[in-house]
Fold each of these.
Amino acid sequence: MTRTALITGITGQDGAYLASFLLDKGYRVHGIHRRSSTDNLERVAHLGDRVQLHCGDLLDSHSLLRLLEQTTPHEVYNLAAQSFVPASFDQPLLTSEVTALGALRLLEAIRQFDTSIRYYQASSSEMFGRVQQEPQNEMTPFWPRSPYGVAKVYAHWITINYRESYGIFACNGILFNHESPWRGKEFVTRKISDAVARIKLGRQKTLRLGNLDAQRDWGFAGDYVQAMWRILNHKTPDDFVIATGVKHSVLEFAELAFEHADMDFREFVEVDPGLLRPADVHTLCGDASKARSELKWEPKVDFRELVGMMVEADLARLNGEWGGG
Ligand code: NAP
Ligand code: G4F
C-alpha cells in the first residue's frame, strides 16, 4: 500500500529535501504551506505536481485538523517553525506560538483525528544551549539560550507527553545544525557561501559577521532528512540525536569557503558587534551513537564537502547555471 506523508514547513530547507526523499521512496507527499502574497515555493518548484500543496498554518488549529482529514497521512513530519534564533529575540511571542504551541496544535489534531498517525518533531540542538556535557547526547540536560530554544524544549516535551499519555508514535529528532544550498541566507553558512560567490564575481566587497568563535557541528541536510524517516520507521517511538560528532568555528567555515574560491578571508571579513546575540550558544557537538547503532544512520557528507558544495551552488546560481534540484 502506498504510504502517505504530510509535511509542515515544506517550503523550508528540510521540507524540500524530505519531500524529495519520500517521493523517491514511493510515498504520496502532501505539504502544508502558508498563504503568501509572493511566491515562497522556490525550494519545491522542481518537484512539480508530484507534491500536493495545501494552505494551512501552525497558528490555525482548524486548518491542521482539516488537512489531516483531507490527506489521511500515515506519517506527519512537523518541520514548520520560526527557526531563526535572532528573530526569536525580536519576536518571542510569535516564536512561542509557532514553534512551541504549533507542535501542540498539531499533536492535538492528531489525537482528535487518528492516534495511529506517526508524528515526527523537529527538535533542535539549540535546546542544549549552554552545554552541560560534551558531546551532547539524548541524556544531556537542556539549557536553552534563546526564546527559540525554549520554544523547542516545550515542543520536545509535549511530543514525549503525547507519546506517554495517548500512545501516539511521536518522536523527536534532535538535529544539530545542517546546511545545504537551500539553506536560508540569514543563517551564517549560507550568508558566507553567498557572500563568497558574490565577492568572487565582483558583486560584493566585504562580509560582515558576528561571533566568529561560535562552534557548530555542521552536517548536510540531505543526510539528515533520511534520519527523520528512519526515526519514524523505527520499531518503537523514541528520541534521537542526529549529528556528525565534529565541530568547527564560524571562522573556520569562512576560511574554508573563501579558500574554496581561491581567496583569503582576512581581506574580506569584518566583525560587526551589532550581529552579536543577547545570549549566544558558543559550542555544540553531538554524539549520534544511538542513531548509528539503532537506526543504522550515518552522515555521508563531511565539513569540507559541505562548504565546497554550498560555495559551488552559489557561484552557479549567480551565473544562472543552477538547476536547484
Ligand atoms: P526553515 O528553512 O526556516 O523552514 C521553516 C519552515 O516553517 C518554512 O517552510 C516556513 O514557511 C514554515 N513556517 C514558519 N511559520 C509557519 C507557520 N506559522 N505555519 C506553517 N508553516 C510555518 O527551517 P529548516 O532549516 O528547514 O528546519 C526545519 C525544522 O527543523 C525547523 O523546525 C527548525 O527549527 C528545525 N531545526 C533545524 C535545524 C537546522 O540546522 N536546519 C536544526 C535543528 C532543528 P515559509 O516558507 O512560509 O516561511
Ligand atoms: O547559522 P546560525 O544563525 O544558526 P543557529 O543559531 O545555530 O541556529 C540554527 O541551528 C539550530 C540547531 O542548533 C536550529 F535549531 C536553528 O533553527 C537554526 O537552523 O548561527 C550559528 C552561529 C551562531 O553562534 C551565531 O552567533 O553563527 C554565529 N554567527 C556569527 N556571525 C552568525 C553570524 N549567525 C548569523 N546568522 N549571521 C551572522 O552574521
Amino acid sequence: MIYLSTPIYYPNDRPHIGTAYTTLVADAVARYWRLVGEEVYSVTGVDEYGLKIARAAEDHGVTPQEWVDSIVGHFHETWALLDMSFDDFIRTTEERHRNTVQPLLQRMYDAGDVYKGHYEGPYCVACEAYYTAEQLVDGKCPVHKRQVEIHSEDNWFFRWSRYGDRLLEHVAANPEFITPDTRRNEVIGFIQQGLEDISMSRSSLSWGIPLPWDDSQVAYVWFDALINYVSAAGFSDDPDRFVKQWPVWAHLVGKDILRFHAVLWPAMLMSAGLALPRQIAVHGWLLVGGEKMSKSNATQILPSDLVPTFGADGYRYHFLRDVSFGPDGNFSWEGMVDRYNADLANDFGNLVNRVLNIAVSYRGGNVPAVSDHGAAEEAVLVATAAEALAALDGFAEFRTKQALDGVWRLFGAANAFVEATAPWHLAKNPEMAGRLDQVLNAALESLRVGAVLISPVMPSAANKLWAMLGLPGGAGDGPLATTGVFGTFPAVTVTKGDPLFPRIEVP
Ligand code: ME8
C-alpha cells in the first residue's frame, strides 16, 4: 500500500502556487502508482487549530470555526481546478482527528515523556514555532523574516532530548529516510547539536485539542497537526485500514517544515509506539522574482490566475517539468508560456494532429493492426518508447522532470519517424500500401503509449487523446507494465478532435 501525504495547510488564506506545488507532485506520484497497479491512499487537508488561525478569525470578526469553515472551500475548489485525485481530505477539527490525537498524546504521557515546566522564549506565529535566541536572524524569524513574540507560560513539555541517539541511529540505518541528501545532512547536524525538550501545549489558547490529562491546556498546534497522518490512516475510525496502511510510504514537505517532520515527528512516533514513515521527501521553495511565494506576498499568484490561460494540464505540466523536486525553483509567466508553446502546442500537439490527420486522410481512421515494427525506422521509435517507460520510474523518487523528459524523447522520435517515413509519399504509391499501414500503426502506437505515460501528469489531455484514438477505458487505467509497452495499435477507429493545446499567442 502506497500511503502518501502532503502537509496539511493552514487555512489562513486560499492556496497559492507554492502550496499547490507540493499537492501537485503528490497527485502525480499517486496517479503513477495507481497506473502501476499499486493500492494507493493519498491524503491532503488543512491544519485548522492554533494561534495563527485564531488570530486570523479574530481579525475578521468571526469565530475560529466560522473562519476555517469559510476558507476550506477554497482548498477544495483549487484542488478540483487542478484535477487533483486525493483519496482523503482531512480537517483537524474533525472528530476522527481528536479521537486520534488524545490517545496518542496519552501514550506519550504514559511512556514518561511528558512533564510540566515553564516556557519562555521567542515564538513565530506565522511558523507556529518556538525558536531559541540563536536561531533568530537579526532578532527575526529565519523563515518569515518577521518580528517574533516573546511567549511565557506554564506548559507541558515533551522529552525530545531523549530521542536524539535513536533518531541518529534510524537516519544512519535508513539512507532513504530523508531525501534529498542535503536535507538529510541538515537533519543530522541539527540532532547532533543536541535536542532540547519542547513545549507541547498552550494554556493561553483555547482553539485546540484539550490534553487528555489536563483539559485546561490544548495541544501545541504542531503536536496535533503531525498526528493528522495517523488520523487519516483510520486509527480511530477504521482500525482495519490503519493496520493495512501504516506506516506512511512518503510524507511530501517543503523545506520550511523539515525539522518538524524529520526530527519531531519520528520522536513522537517512537514515544507513542508507532512505526516511522519510510520517507520524508523534501522540496525547496517556489520563488517568484527571487522571493518565496507566500501568503503575505504582494505578488501572490494563485492557480486560478494561470489555469484559464494554460488549462489544468498545461499548469500541471509546467510545474512538474520545470521545477525539480529538491532545490528552489523560479516561476515566471514567460517561462511558462515558452514551455507550453514549445512542448505542448508544438512537440506534442502537432504530433497528435499530424498523426491523426494522416490516419483519417489515408485510411478513414481505420488502420489495420499490423504487428511488424521491425523496419529500421521503427527501431528507434521502439527503443525510445522502452526508455520512456523505464524513465517513468522517476515518479517513485519524485523526479517528475526525468519521467517527462523520457516521454518527450518519445514524442521527438515519433515526430522524426513521421518525417523520415513520409506517409504522404507512401500514400501516392499503391505498391506501398502495406508499408503505409505499418507506418501509420507505429505512429498511432506511439501516441497510445504517450497517452499512457503522460496520464499521471496530464490526466485530462491523456484521456482526450485516448478517446480520439478510439480506445476503450482511460489512458491511466494501467497496469503500466502492459499498457506502457510499445506493441501493436489495435484495429479501432481513430478520429480527429480539437487541438489539445492551442498555441498561446504572446502580444
Ligand atoms: O506549515 N514553495 O502549513 P502552510 C513551495 N500547517 N512550497 C510551498 C511554498 C513555496 N513558496 N509555500 C508553501 C504548515 N509551500 C503547517 C503544516 S503538516 C503536519 C502542517 C508548501 O500552509 C510547502 O509544502 O504554511 C510547505 O512546506 C507548506 O506549503 C507549508 O504550508
